[in-house]
Design goal:
By secondary structure, the chain is an alpha/beta fold. It contains 26 helices and 20 strands. Strands 9-6-10-13-5-15-14 form a 7-stranded mixed beta sheet, sandwiched between helices. The longest helix is centred in the N-terminal third of the chain and has 37 residues, at 2-38. The chain starts with a helix and ends with a helix. Residues 472-476, 587-602 and 625-636 have low confidence and may be disordered.
Length: 817
């Protein structure tokens, strides 16, 4: 009887699956035909068609064209790449390892991924494929004699050592780390940056459910948690603690609350934060027609299109657009004999705000004859409707209102526009709005772990920690993929399973595999959630009526950390917490910038020691920046105005000497006068003539010809370090002219002193020291060449080469002071 019973279950499963395939084939065929008629492709179509394009036997020409244009391939978020996407990648880079037939250029593949963070299986992500492709590429590189560099990133640029230590502890057990990595050695210990704050990890006691109270079915909530539920009390506790952290110095934007999925707890946390008047960003995703602002705008249309719709009008009057309250609505509606709209008009004379509401309703009725976008644009703009919504709901309503107007425009492009048609079209769609949570505002963010991928925050709260993924097909029917053994070239077979009791052995095995995979991803999701925290990680949860699942997040974290934690009273006085500190924190500091509570203890020895002196930074010496001014200032009888004019003359002369050598000799005088006419307004014509003549004569003098040889350079930066008796001396400056020949280097600096020195002995010491520093740096760059240094006096003009002995003596003085 048992074999017959198994065959009956198999036959029922086959028939059930065949019926599903029959229906699905008809639906998919019609859907595909509709896309083909409109020329539309969805995301899966793009992947499938790309795979066909690259994998077809006739794709040689496509590969040839692509191969000519692809030298480097970067694969980001590789752990979330699907099997089909990996196949496309493999086809794209096949020629990278073609050996003698490959292009001569070195071509590279750079893949960045972390299988511990693969949490998008519902999008086809295959974390195991990352390790498989790494092995495949490693073999291909080895076979082609190309280097392969596998790297493991152990440093965290986000979290402190206590947060990372908690992650290491939680995922240290073999049964846990096998879920998140294929590496048999497990997860290598995470390393924080040296300057990272220690941080803190707290585990709060779970909120227990209260005794049920008797409640009439009519009064029972249908789709939200009650104020007495454990989830609502957890939300209230979170809100009170966030308020405390803000008072202690944190910002609302420092807090990120993570849940596994949007649901009652998600909504309760947002509601509790709003009630506590804490800035909150609202839901990261929302169905547009479920947003209260959009519901009000749709109710406005209902009330205008059907004046007898009292419920729509009542909702509208209490909305931010009209602002009436329950008492106003009762006064209008009580004992009325006609419609609510007629009652509003009848009582308009009794109260000013009733008259205002009636007049506004009439204006809206007149505007309703317009196109949907124009109508709603006037309601939100001219009537300040947007301002009213934002005042009551916060700026989170902005995204919903913007998307609502965008849909009105989109509808007008697609259909014959009318207000009634737009509302019907809108209700028939389920437009989802995704708010960009990467834009940092000073608001608490509440979002799912999937949505928080890639984000971070100083304080992260894991709130939804006491539930686990529902097992595949516990009671309801479920589509279950079966084993592909022996079916490598065929689509994945599947079965539409019923309740677990009706499973065949094959379906039962597949169901168990799905359960394990869901559990693995559940633990990878925990890894992602914990590593969002920078300074402080809080693990909390709310228990339900049933016992907490053994493998839930709260249990996993508590079991790993509680032996290493200090049990202390909660900051809000409500129960106790377990605090994990791998790295101790000085008790002398009461709070961190994110309101992290520290507990008194023995002061570490280093806190009472003398702080060692800080090594002074090497300040670069800029030889030419101050020396000439120093010399001019020391000139007898030089006033401030004279010094300023001398500096201006020096700048003009330097600019001419820099630029004129590159101009043909016959055009230099004209170019010099043109430059001075534009830039020497403070100089007399005779002075400009003198400067131009001096520069032109200098450039034509045979004594200076060596400075302007082909290949010589003007205004050359000199940067380097030389050893001094008291440490390293950094040199940073700019030499006016530099000539490098086969056996020597000549550097020259232009000086505009008036009068110029007549002998080497009369050269100011700062000038010699300046040349000595330049010469020392260039000597390191050209150790096999003689380094010569000279000064060019532009007033004479004259060139003085400073002897090496004088330069050596000046350098010794500079490096010993």
């Amino acid at each position: 009887m048992i074999p017959l019973h198994e065959r009956r279950k198999a036959l029922a499963c086959r028939n059930r699956t065949a019926a599903l395939i029959t229906i699905a084939d008809a639906v998919i065929s019609r859907y595909q035909a509709a896309k083909d008629r409109r020329g539309l492709l969805d995301y899966d179509d793009l992947i499938d068609k790309t795979l066909v394009l690259l994998g077809d036997d006739r794709a040689a020409w496509v590969h040839y064209k692509l191969d000519q244009g692809i030298d480097h391939l970067l694969i980001d978020e590789a752990q979330d790449t699907s099997s089909k996407q990996w196949e496309i990648i493999h086809l794209l880079v096949a020629e990278f390892f073609a050996g003698a037939g490959a292009r001569s250029i070195r071509r590279t593949i750079f893949a960045v991924g972390d299988e511990k963070q693969s949490i998008f299986s519902f999008q086809g992500a295959a974390p195991h494929a990352f390790a498989e492709m790494r092995a495949l590429f490693q073999s291909a590189h080895a076979a082609s004699g190309l280097p392969f560099v596998p790297l493991k990133f152990k440093h965290s640029f986000r979290s402190g050592p206590n947060v990372l230590g908690a992650v290491d502890e939680v995922f240290a057990r073999n049964a846990i780390h096998a879920s998140v990595t294929s590496d048999p050695d497990g997860i290598p210990p995470h390393i924080a940056l040296p300057d990272a704050a220690p941080g803190l990890v707290e585990i709060w006691e779970t909120i227990k459910p209260q005794d049920k109270r008797e409640i009439e079915a009519w009064d029972a909530p249908f789709d939200e948690v009650t104020e007495r539920s454990s989830q609502a009390r957890l939300a209230a506790k979170l809100a009170s603690n966030v308020k405390r952290w803000i008072k202690q110095g944190a910002r609302a934007g420092d807090v990120l609350v993570l849940v596994r999925q949007r649901g009652p707890l998600f909504d309760a946390v947002i509601r509790a934060l709003k009630e506590a008047q804490i800035p909150v960003a609202g839901a990261d995703r929302l169905v547009l027609t479920e947003h209260i602002a959009v519901m009000d705008l749709m109710a406005l249309a209902d009330a205008l299109l059907l004046p007898e719709d009292d419920l729509a009008l009542a909702s509208m009057l209490k909305s931010p657009l009209f602002g009436l309250d329950d008492d106003d609505l009762f006064e209008i509606a009580w004992q009325r004999r006609g419609s609510l709209r007629a009652a509003l008009r009848a009582k308009a004379a009794l109260r000013p705000h009733f008259a205002e509401a009636a007049a506004k309703l009439d204006r809206f009725a007149a505007w309703a004859q317009e196109l949907p976008f124009a109508f709603y644009a006037r309601v939100l703009g001219a009537e300040r409707g947007r301002k009213r919504f934002l005042a009551r709901l916060g700026h989170e309503a902005d995204d919903a209102l913007d998307e609502f107007l965008n849909l009105a425009l989109d509808y007008e492009r697609r259909e014959t526009p009318s207000l009634q048609g737009f509302i019907a079209w809108l209700r028939g769609s389920e437009t989802e709005v995704k708010r960009d949570m990467e834009i940092r505002r000073d608001e608490v963010r509440v979002m799912t772990v999937h949505g928080a991928k890639g984000l971070e925050a100083p304080i992260v709260v894991l709130a939804d920690t006491t539930t686990v993924p529902s097992g595949p097909g516990q009671r309801q029917a479920r589509l279950i993929p079966l084993s592909r053994a022996g079916l490598a070239d065929l689509p994945i077979p599947f079965a539409w399973a019923g309740v677990r009791a009706s499973d065949t052995a094959t379906v039962s095995t597949a169901r168990e595999r799905l359960r394990r995979e869901a559990g693995d991803e559940y633990r990878r999701l925990l890894y992602v959630a914990m590593t969002r925290a920078i300074d402080r990680l809080i693990v909390c949860g709310a228990d339900g009526e049933r016992a907490r699942p053994e493998a839930c997040w709260w249990n996993l974290v508590h079991a790993a950390l509680h032996p290493l934690c200090a049990v202390e009273p909660a900051d809000d006085g409500d129960g106790q917490v377990w605090r994990y500190r791998k790295v101790p924190v000085p008790s002398g500091v009461a709070r961190t910038h994110v309101g992290q509570a520290l507990v008194a203890g023995e002061l570490p020895a280093w806190l009472e020691c003398e702080t060692p002196g800080e090594t002074p930074a090497i300040v670069p010496v800029s030889p030419s920046s101050a020396y000439e001014e120093t010399v001019i200032r020391a000139s007898t009888g030089a006033s401030r105005a004279e010094r300023a004019k001398a500096m201006a003359r020096g700048v003009l002369m330097h600019r001419l000497l820099q630029s004129l050598p590159d101009i043909p000799q016959g055009e230099r005088a004209t170019a010099a006068h043109r430059h001075l006419a534009r830039n020497a307004a403070d100089f007399a014509a005779s002075e400009c003539e003198s400067m131009a003549d001096a520069v032109c004569h200098l450039l034509e003098d045979a004594r200076f010809a060596e400075l302007f040889l082909p290949g010589s350079r003007a205004e050359v930066p000199i940067v380097g370090r030389i050893a001094g008796t008291k440490g390293t001396i950094a040199v940073s400056g700019q030499v006016d002219r530099l000539v490098v020949t086969d056996d020597a280097v000549l550097l020259a600096d232009y000086k505009t002193n008036r009068p110029a020195p007549e002998s080497i002995q009369d050269i100011p010491d700062p000038y010699v020291a300046q040349l000595a520093l330049y010469r020392a740096v260039l000597g390191q760059l050209y150790p096999d060449k003689t380094i010569r240094a000279a000064l060019v006096w532009t007033d004479v003009p004259d060139l003085m080469e400073v002897p090496a002995t004088k330069l050596d003596a000046a350098l010794a003085r500079v490096t010993s002071t």
